[in-house]
Amino acid sequence: LTGLKEKEVTGRSLEDFLTHAAYRSLTGTPRLPIETELRVGPDRFPVEVILRDVDFGGKPHQAVAVRDLSARKEAERHIRFLAHHDALTGILNRASFSGELEDAIVAGAKRERVVAVICVDLDRFKEVNDLQGHAAGDDLLRRVSASLTKAVEGIGIAARLGGDEFAVLIPDAQSPNRVGRVADSIFEAFRAANEGTTSGPLMSASMGIALFPDNAANAEQLMSCADTALYRAKQDGRGVYRFYSSEMGAEIRDRRLIEQDLRYALARHQLSLVYQPQIDIDSGDV
Description:
By secondary structure, this protein is of the alpha+beta class. 46% of the residues lie in helices and 22% in strands. The protein is built from nine helices and eight strands. The chain has helices at residues 6-9, 20-28, 70-84, 94-111, 125-132, 134-151, 176-195, 219-235, 246-267, and strands at 34-40, 43-56, 59-68, 115-122, 157-162, 165-170, 205-212, 241-243. The strands form two sheets. The protein has a five-stranded mixed β-sheet with strand order 5-6-4-7-8, with helices on both faces. A three-stranded antiparallel β-sheet has the order 1-2-3, with helices on both faces. Strand 2 and strand 3 form a beta hairpin. Helix 6 (134-151) crosses helix 7 (176-195). The chain is elongated and about 125 Å long. The relative contact order is 0.09.
């Protein structure tokens, strides 16, 4: 475990390898396993130690068992990482992004800061999966994540919300102009990555931007506004970004209500198809 030779260990005190607190716990509570670190010079090894009283050669002795916990600790670190990060790309996942956004809004409200959310959605990602396969799609998602993270480094936090949906949180956005420059830098990062790609699909995305407190009072509303702005960006030809406006929200809300009504009408068989004959007035031909 430590790489030490037997002669380097024999005769030395356990205190040479354990913290003072761990040594006291070990000797003060025999038969109780203790998780601690084995210390060998600058190196630290996670271990479980337990002390037992034993009879050896008719005399009382104490035996200490040491179990290496490195594999378990590494598995626990990996589980913790997966709980907060996207397994494919390594950036934050939706749950962690939501937590960061909530915290940013609380801090923004106290310090009167502008908080911005940029929703990023890849253009025609389904075509990549359909035409080039899911391996190519996964590679594209990883490259997008890397470019997105690099573009907002030191300014914001990037996350993958799921599928081909990404988001950027800017806790101290300062002004719409600054957020617009961040969006431009993301597009520029994508263009630079595309120029360096000799094979595989190219990056293309649309973005929707919403600001706290101008557009929304809480995290859920802010994400909804950014999503609405993203919808408008896709309507306007893709490969662009749009800031949220109240007029935009009303228009898209009306469209979604119509869509919902049509879905209900189809489910309830309230629509029927009627063929109307067309007649030539001059000849009377149908």
